[in-house]
Structures are given as C-alpha cells and as structure tokens.
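In this supplementary section we document a worked example of the pipeline. Step one takes a protein sequence of length 1082 as its only input; no multiple sequence alignment statistics are reported here. Step two produces a three-dimensional model, which step three serialises into structure tokens for compact storage. The input and output of this example are shown verbatim.
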Amino acid sequence: MGSFVDPLSEPEEITPLAEEPTVLDAPSPGHVVLAEYIGGQNCPPCYGYASPDLKSLKNANSDEFVYISYLPASYGNIYTAQAGNVAPMNRISHLSSDGANSAPQAYFGDCAKSSSACFMSGAMTNGKTYDDFFSGVNGKSNNMDSTVNSYSMVISQTQSGTDATITVEASYNGGGTSDVRVIAAVTEDTCNSYPYADGSKAGHCWKKWLVDSTNSGPISMTLSSTPTSYSWTVPVSTVNGGMSNMLSIAWLQDDWSTGTTRHNVLSATDSSMLPPIDVAIDSFTAESSDGYSGIIAGDQVDLTLSIKNIGADVYADGGTIEVFKVDGLTETSLGSTSVNTLAVGGTQSYSTTWDSTGETIENNGDSRFRARITVVDSIGSNNVVDSTVNHDATPTSVRPVPDGSSTTIPRGGSLGFDMTALPNDSVDTLETMTPELEVKHSTDNSWDSSWVTIPINTVGQGTNERYVATVVPPVSAGSGDYDIRSRWTDSRGQISDWLETNDAFTLLNGLPTVLSPTDQGYSGVPTVKVDTLETVSMVGLIADAETPLNQLTVTSNSPNFVSWDASAMTMDVQFSNVDRDAQGNIRNQGIQVTLSDGEDQNDGTVFFSVIPNGAPSWSPIPTQTISEGGSVAVALTQYLSDTDNNGADVSESELAALDIHIVSTTPENIVDVVLTGQTINIDTLDDDVTGTIEIVLRASDESQSTDSTVTVIVQNINDAPRFDMSALENLRLKIGETFTLDTSLYSSDVDDDDSNIFAQVTSSEPGAVTPIAIGVYTMSWQTEGPQIVQVSLSDPNGAVGQFSFTVSVIGDILLTWDEGNGGDMSLTYDTVDFETSPKMTVSYMGDETFSNTEVTWQICNTITGTCHSLGTVEEFGIEFDVVSVYPEGLRMGDEIKVDVIATDTSDFDYKSVKSFSLMASEPVIIDSDGDGVADSEDAFPEDPDETLDTDGDGVGDNADAFPEDASKSEEASGLSSAGDSLIMILGVVGLFLVAAVGLGLLFVARKNRVPEAVDWSKTIPAADHSANSMYGGAEHLFQQPVVQAPPVQQGPPLPVGGLPPGWTMEQWAYYGQQYLDNGGKL
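The serialised model returned by step three reads:
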C-alpha cells in the first residue's frame, strides 16, 4: 500500500504495521542513479516514509544513489522558491508540470509525471518505497541513459574562509566527444533549515542552484576522455550547519528544459561520493601502427593506455596494469607492468604492440583488446576498459546493373552500367574503392577493358551512390551477345574476386554501306575513262563496321558494272559515255550495288567521274577535316594525271602547267577558298561556322577539262558562352541605387540554346550583388568608386566564359574651380573693394546638362567670426549682385564665399569641391605724378603741377588765365593792374578754401577709409612756381605760419581704459560702436 497526501483532503491517521522481518538491500543496477524528491514540511507521508526510505537507500548504496529533496513549507503549495522553483531552473514547474499540488513525489532520471515506470506518487509503508525504481526491477525503471557508464564525474567542495569552492569534473570514455549540460545545486546534508512538522529532518534539501555566469541556465561542457572541470564559489552560510553540513549535488543531461520536454540523464554524483582511493583507466586505444583505419593480417597494432588516481588520497598500494587480446571468452596477455605510486590526479601510461599475423580478418569484424588494472581501491567498475580495431576486409563486387530497360547496343551506340560493391568493413566506402569492368564476346575467352570508361567520381547519394561505367563497342566489334565481369580494389590494395555476368548486353550487327562524303574514311569520287575497262579500288567507298571489305559480296544490275574482286577489293567498271550538264561540265555517274556481309545486306550507289580519254584525270582527293576557325592547304598536283591523245602520260612540266580553277563552293558561307598555283587553301570564314562543304575543282589542259570534288568537314568545337558588355560600358549608379541585371539579355552561345546558359554574377563587395531569379541579379553599392562585377557563364558542355565590367558608383560629383590651371567652373567679378557691392558671374565649362542648379554666395566677417549676408542664383552664367546687409557694402574683414550644387538630367548630384573665396580689400589708389590726387580724379595724371581743367580746354587751371573760359587761357597784354592782381589772388585763396571744405566733406563721407597722407606743400600756391609767376611774386601771401589742424577722431569715443586689447584704430572706426552697444562684446 502507498501513502499520499492530497491538499484537498485531510490526512488520515497512520497506524504503524507490525514489525516485519529484515528485508535485503535493493540490488545494484550496475551504475549511478538519480532521484528528485518533492515533499512538504507538513506532509506526514513525507516524514513518515518517503524521506526515511530515501536515506536508507542512499546509506545502502552510497556510491550509486544520488537524490535531491525539494521541500516547500506546505504540500498544498509546492511551487515555491523554498522548494527550488526559482529562475532560471524552475525545477518544480518542470517536474510537476501539470500544476497540481501534492506530496510526496519522486522522479527517477528526468522522468515525466505521466510515467508510472519512473515516477512515484505517495510512499510505501514497508521501508522499500523506491528500491524497485533504483534497481530497475518489477516493472520499474531508474530511467538512466544506456551510456551512463561511459561517463565519469565527481563533485568536490573546499572551504576558504567564509566561502566554499565547489568543483565539478567530468569525462566521457565512449569515443569522440559529448556535449552535455551540468545541473548542480548546493543542499543541506541534514535539512536544518526546513524541519518536518514532527521534528525530523529530511536529507539533501535544496538551497541554491549552481548555474552559468549569466544566470541563464546550467553550464555547458564538451566532454572527452580528458576530464573537464568547472568551479563555483558560494558563501558557506548558504547552508544551515556550516561546511560540514554542505552537500553539493550534480548530474549530466544531454540538454535541459524548464517546460515539459524531458532529456536523458547521463550520470550523477554528490560530494559524499568522492572516493578516498580510486584508480581508474583514464583512456585505452588500439590503433594501426601505420595509421590505417583498419588492419589486415600482418599489421602491427599500437595499444596505449593511461590510468589516473581520481580518488581523494594518494595511491601507494601497488598493483598491475595488463593488456589482453580478447577472443570470445578467452583473454591472452600481451604485456603488463606495475602500478606506480600515484598522487591525487596523478597518471601513469603503458603501451605495447600486437602483431596481427595469423589473425583471421572477418567481414565487418574487429579485434578486441582489454586493459585491466589490479589495484586496491573503492570502485572496481573503472578498472577494466575494452578497445577494438576494425578489420580491413576484402571487398565484394555487386552485380552491375544496366542503365535503362534495354541491354541492346546499336552499332555506334553505348550502354551504361551502375557499379557498386560491399566494402565488408567499417574502413572503406564506395569512394575509397576503385572499380574495374571488362567485356568479352560470349563465344570468346579474351577479356578487354578498352571499351569501358569509368569516371573517378561517384554519382547519387546515400544508398543510391554508385559508379557509372560506360561501354562503347568499337565499330570493328562483332555483333552478338557479350559478357561482363567486375571487381573492386580497396584503399589497402585488396582486390575482390571477379564477378561475371553472362549475356550482359547484345551488340547489333552493322550493315555494309556505301560511304558518303560525310563518313570517316571516305576516299572521294574515283575518276575513270570512258570506253575503258577500269579497275577501281573500293577502299574508302564501301565499308562494313565489323566485316572486312574482302569478305563482302558486291553485286549490281547496272550495265556499267563488270565484276567484283573480293580478294583485291576492287570493282571493274566500264562506262560508254561521258555525262555532261547543260554547260558541258562532266557529271558524276553512279552504279547501284547490293552489299552483303553474309548476315545482312544493304543497297547503295557508288559514284564515278567518267572522263574522256586524254583529258586530265583526278584521283580521289581525301576528305579534309578541320576544326572551326581552322584552315588547311592541299597540294593538288599529287591527285592529277594527264595523257596525250595517244594515251601516253604527259611530262611533269606539262602536268604542272595544267590550269586548275574553282567551279563552285557549296555552301558558300562557311569557308574561303583560294587557289595558288596547284595548291588550294581553305580557311573558315569565322570561328563559329561548321558543316560539310563540297568544292568542285576543274583541271584543264589545252583541249579538255575534268572536274573533281573536294569534301571539307568543318568540325564543331564547343565555345564558351559570350557576354556582350558594350551596353554596360560607362554604367554609372548612385550610392544605394539598384540596377537589375538580366544576364540573358547580354548572353549568347553559338553552340547551344541560349536558355541553357548558367550565369553567376559576383562583386568584391559582399552583398552588393543579389540573385532574384535565374540569371537575374540586382546590383547596389554603398561605397563610392569603381566596382568590378564578375560574370561567369557556363554551357551544358562545361565550357566557361569569364567576364568583368566596371560600374562607377557615384556619390556627389565634385566640381572644381578654374583658379589658373583649368577646372569645371569659373567665377568673374568686377570688384571686391571696401564699400562696394560686387557683380559676379559663375560659368560652367563642362559638357553636362543640369536640371537643377544652385549658386549660393555668402559674406562672412573674419574679424567677428559671423556670416551676415546670403543669396542664391538658380542658373549658371547669370550675373548676380553680392549685396551686404550693411548699407555701405563690403567692410574690412569681409570674405565672400561662393558654393555650387547641381543635379544633371541623369539625376546625379554635383557640388563644388570647395568654396570660391574672395577677401574684401582696400581700393588701390594710383597717383602717377605724385601730386596727392588719384589718377581717377586728376585731369593731368602725368603733371604734378596740374590737377583741374574746369573749362576743358586742355590747359590746367593753374596755368589757365581763364580757367572757366574754354576760348582763351592767356592775357592779351600781361597783367592789367596791381588791383586786379590782388583781386585775382584773393579769388585763388577763396577757391582754395572751397576746395579744402570739399575735401573735408569727402573725408567725412568716406570715414571708413584710411586716406593716404597728403603732402600739402604740393597744393599750396607758394610751392607752385607757375602760380607765383602768374600772380607777380605773391608767394609771401601763402607762406604765413599755419596752425596744424588736430586729427579727426574716427569712430565713437574711446572707453576710459583706452583702445581694447588687440584692437587697431581702423577696427575701432568700423566696429567700436557695436562693441559699446553690446557691453564690451562683439
């Protein structure tokens, strides 16, 4: 009976059973077992039976049983943090995934709650609640993975001050590696923190999960025969009772989940299981000494093992390491050595070799070896390890299977056979073995492999993998049934027996035929004389693929047929007339013949060129075969003969004098034919034309002529597909713009259908070229500059053409200013003087057409660091005014900057590479005669004594007696009187004062200028000799002492502290008022 507490019902009072006889401990399962127990502090069956039974099972099987207790305060709410149901593990939610609250519950392995084989709800009162689960008997299962003994693990804990370092170490000895998750926790050996309601205490109650550094789940390990470890540091205060009450628990799973998914438990351990002394075989390998994957008889095998002290104490009790050859139940020792003293973690190695001579190599077999250590330790299960080395057996051929349903090969045809074999071991595969196939006629005993072609690579995948051998009978092969045989050679050179297949295929008989100009070996049309019995060889005119010509029978009902001589392979013929066309050209005449090889017969027509006696004669000109794009030259003299009217041969000089010319070339569009003397030169017109051409030649002597035909076969050579890049030259794209390239629009193949072209397009920038359909790609770049696009085209015959073109990827196209060395744009202007508003024009000197243009100007002051004026013109070649926001125009420190942006009709953007910059400047004043008056205001720029010409008569006012009368400039008879002279002098003084006032006003109006110092000595009449002479020596009137006028203050009054630091008077004149208005700031 079992006891179970449901939170919805009151627990029944439990009456203890009468004392029973002692029950034996649960049988060992032969490996470690993990149990996870859910209880409750207020659960009577938990503290009455479940926990005591777990403790009892652990005490009896301390090295094979690991359990952890999840102990909530109440069995009515088991999904609590106290019970370990915390992130990231949430173990209670995983185990009791139905959400029900009840206790006790026990899960063996990562058992599903629905499985009665490995899940227990409630408790038994007989003290053996979990024994059957542990032992895996009576329909119960401990649910551990079958590979549990391939894993080893220990968990240890050491104290350092107030902290404890917990280290888990694990290894995998099953060969290769194993990826695992390590679930680990800190528990209290005696559950002081959560005592039961009756005062008793559970064991191994959960306190803390040991997870990865990111708190996202259990740690991961990749295990091999070399141990892997991981450590955590936790406060000793995690448990109630100090370090002596801390018990660390860990187990391995192939994965983990917080949901309903279950995973395999591979091993488990706790810190109480660390054996004081345990020496284990750490690794044991058996390998071919020559590095082969398997062995054949006579190979040497290296046997290497390593042992390790995985216990907690030094091992010094001696012992033996021994290696055995295992045959069934028989062990044969191959060598041994003594066990050394081993420190904790210490290792010892031992190796020996085994000679496989005499070993029976079995199909798919292996040789087994055993390493055993005889030591005094606590665990014996890790003292014996077996290892094997595969046998490399001889392969077995599998009967070849013909492709298709027919095993008949027509004359000139072929047949494929699928070939496979059994390697008979775990060493070879089909790809590491080499097949052979031979054929013979079923009536012969001689095998031949020259008909067979076997590629080096297999076809098909998995169980359909095979070699395909192709049988191509030669034309001379006899008809009938043929046998085949196959065999295989493996990677070690072991050869299988021949596997014969009788009557594997039938080769059909080949009919005797009359050859045509397109047939290989055709000798051409023979020439015979009219009314002459001619014996003509039929070699090159009649043939049989398998029967010699001298074994054929040739008959005819033609009156021109005389006889057939099989032994000489000649035909006697005699024609009674010469057949000519309407133009008088000799035409070939035919004799229809019946050919028989004794098995089959066939009809055909043999043509002859019948010529008059004495006419030049042609012997057959062999068919000329050239490749496409090739050429050939044929000397015709060797095929010519001629006789005189009496039938005597003409001399060589007369033969060489025969005139030869071309009558026709059919068709005309394949080759170019040129005759040079008696040599014919034949050239293909281009690299892609093929076909059969007949060239009719005519040889003429002084009175007669005869024709002959030269047959030319231009053979096709497969050409790679071509890619026309002319339309893609100068392709320009903007950054990010997408261009769709349909390769079929640019691809062609002269030998195959264009639709069979396979195209691949790539670029050096990853992701720039993307396929969107077969042969269709999109191209887009994010990087400016030239981009190389590679195009690869291949046809079904394997020919590949490689092409590349350049795409110009453009961001902004830079426009340069013409600053004397040429450029895209020029800027012209009239002035940049102070107090002006310049007129400017920007002109474009390139070839592009723009849909949008913006010429932007701005004025910035380099002294204040601010920009105050801006304007835009939307077209090149338009004059625009640069107008400052200040009424006076350009000021000191002003800089004019001009920039251009534009868009062409292809939507590409352009911008000026930099701003065109102009600095405002002081006007240049030119005073050529140095009289203090600028040339622009001086009527006499080359005369320092003259400045004005008021009446415009060309005489300066100083020298002009009548400066306002253009009709005269001198007195008629000298000076009139002293009174008049005085009046004139006073007039001059008045004029001087007016001029002085005018200059003063001009200075105020142009206050922002810094005028040049004026040399007043040159403008006072006292220094003007002409004036003194004119006014009768009155210079003393102008030489009276004059008080120097004080300099006029420019700008606002200076502050109390004087001119600000770093300022000049010129800057103060311009910006002083702004400085004062802003409180001493600009």
